[in-house]
Amino acid sequence: MALRLDGRQLAAALELRLRSAIAAGLEQAGRPPGLAVLRVGDDPASGVYVANKEKACERVGITSHGAHLAADNPADAVAAVIERLNADPSVDGILLQLPLPKGLEESPLLALIDPEKDADGLHTLNLGRLAKGESGPRSCTPAGVMALLRQAQVSLSGARAVVVGRSLLVGQPMALMLQAADATVTVAHSRTRDLAALTRQADVLVVAAGQPLLIGAEHVRPGAVVVDVGIHRLPPDPAAGPGAKGKLCGDVRFEEVEPIAAAITPVPGGVGPMTVTMLLVNTVVAWGRRHGLDNPLADLVP
Ligand code: NAD
Q1: Residue positions annotated with a catalytic role
Q2: Is residue 244 part of a domain?
Q3: Which atom number of ligand 1 is nearest to the Cα of residue 274?
Q4: Residue 293 alpha carbon to ligand 1 centre in Å
């Protein structure tokens, strides 16, 4: 039976650390940290994500500076809001919620975010800082995975890690973070030949392929640590009647892999909650930096 890498539990513990970090720095900073989540259009899933992020801010004492623009706004109007938030001294973190409505290009708008306020850690400068081992906001999902591995005392130095997926959002920064922790990292992607032969070599297997139930027992070496980043909703069971929602699943066939793995993240409740928490961590660290505070969260974001 594998150890469960419980993201909900760790996220709750980190929220307590965030609250005390904010309390400790409040007097010197003179104001609480601020996070602006910018939403354009009415994508329903984004609505839920933004609400979750705002609730998490409230729990730890971060002020939300949300902005919601209608879908028919031109790129200039979105750019103007980003510039305003860049200039606002009470905002430490800015997040442009994706996907954007059709007709708006993501990259040029993301590039406008002040790298020091890049709560998602995805700005070109911050990916470069990660590659060079310099301090700065870190990509939230892989940083959340690193926190889960550290919490479970998974030994990474010299370990063989395989990352399935090479996106800029997850796979690439994940590989850099594992490498910085002295793992020997291989990145697999959609053109990789004989994926199972490669993943079976992994002591630590991180799967971010965005393919429901891709990874089964045949892909996993007994005793490996398996982190499932994927999240998908399966079609509803027809027997469940009209209006029923399908179950959530990841990229890993949990029932098959759990009996042979040493540790595994569940979906939901594994990586997902950590992603939101790392957004808060980036914001609080940026706030501390602006006010000359020591970083009490340097184990999470340097
Ligand atoms: P993406 O589609 O941008 O990238 C997927 C990557 O997987 C690509 O590099 C592709 O080459 C690779 N891939 C696809 N099929 C493959 C296969 N059969 N074999 C090997 N590699 C394959 O996706 P993403 O943005 O990196 O996200 C990946 C998954 O993680 C998605 O399910 C997404 O919803 C989820 N996600 C979850 C969180 C979270 O907080 N839990 C955060 C971000 C993304």
Answers
A1: 53, 97, 120
A2: yes
A3: 40
A4: 36
